[in-house]
Specification:
Protein name: DUF6265 domain-containing protein
Shape: globular
Helix content: under 10%
Strand order of the largest sheet: 1-2-3-4-5-6-7-8-9-10
Number of strands: 10
CATH topology: Lipocalin
Largest sheet: 10 strands, antiparallel, barrel
Order of helices and strands: HEEEEEEEEEE
Strand content: over 45%
Pfam family, one: DUF6265
InterPro entries: DUF6265
Radius of gyration: 17 Å
Distance between the termini: 42 Å
Keywords: Signal
């Protein structure tokens, strides 16, 4: 019985990890434009981390698409993310910063989390540790590799609807 549970757990982890990928070391990101991810624009809501999530993406303008993310748990803002996907050297880069509910930043003033483009594959756009998936015009998934306090990582799925 324990072997069955372990096998199921192992298969579940392996299945989850298939939604995100990383850019191999010393590999140049592929060419892409904001047109490849312009379907992200809009107001999206979902549930994750025990609360309500909200993500707003602007249309492409000035070589970038800006976004804001908010997590609300038990009626209180838990945290925000602000960022963008921008065109740089004929490819895309996904960049973000985190903020507490009082807008005090988690990262240092000049620190930004930056994720290189890995590939564009149909309705999926893969960044280093993040995948954006168009399910339909009114539904998207975002898969993110999250670092845990113990040094391990896990893939978290966010499902959003317009």
């Amino acid at each position: 019985m324990n072997r069955i549970i372990f096998a199921f757990f192992f298969i579940s982890l392996a299945t989850q990890a298939q939604n995100t990928t990383t850019l191999p070391k010393d590999t140049t990101p592929p060419h892409a434009t904001l047109k490849d991810i312009s379907w992200m624009q809009g107001y999206w809501t979902g549930e994750a981390f025990g609360g309500i999530t909200e993500e707003i993406w602007t249309p492409p303008l000035g070589g970038s698409m800006m976004f804001s993310f908010k997590l609300v748990v038990d009626g209180e803002v838990s945290f925000y993310e602000l960022g963008h996907i921008r065109e740089v050297n004929k490819t895309l880069v996904y960049e973000l910063k985190h903020f507490n509910d009082d807008l005090k930043g988690w990262e240092e003033k000049d620190e930004v989390h930056s994720f290189k483009l890995v590939k564009v594959d149909g309705d999926r756009v893969y960044f280093d540790g993040f995948t954006f998936e168009k399910v339909s015009d009114n539904e998207i998934n975002i898969y993110a590799q999250i670092d845990n306090e113990d040094g391990s990582t896990e893939e978290v799925a966010f499902n959003f609807k317009k």
